[in-house]
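Give me the fold.
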Amino acid sequence: MAALMAAGCSFEPERPKPPPAVAFTPQMAESVLAKVVAGVSRNGVADFCATFARSTATCETLLRDALRQCLLPGDKPVVKRSIHLPATDKYEETWQLVVQGRTLDGQKYVTDFPIVLSGGVPKAVLGIYWNGQGYGRNMDDPPTYTVPPQNACP
């Protein structure tokens, strides 16, 4: 090292490598859905949005709308499709799960259920999975495959 310094060379320590990015998998996304479904089954909708949704205000609006229509989740939904949406300048990396199930009163729904990494941890964007909404990145061209349930109030 003294010879390198005498020759006018400077020694730079090796720079630490950044930690590897978390691999965001469809299994991670599906585990979030499973936690949300289990949470609703266990605790109902009390504190649902604060617990499960990253976009709490939007979740609360969707939840109020669902409750106003007497729509509650029934059995565990099935993931029909997992769509990976890479990050862009405008959007985060997302797994868009297309889920199908039945509301408590037996109506079929098909809903988009977006999940993102929030601080390195996968989290549901909206949390509500039983309302039949589509949440594509381009809301000017919403998906046509969703199936919203009808008002279930007597």
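Residues 26-43 form the longest helix (18 residues).
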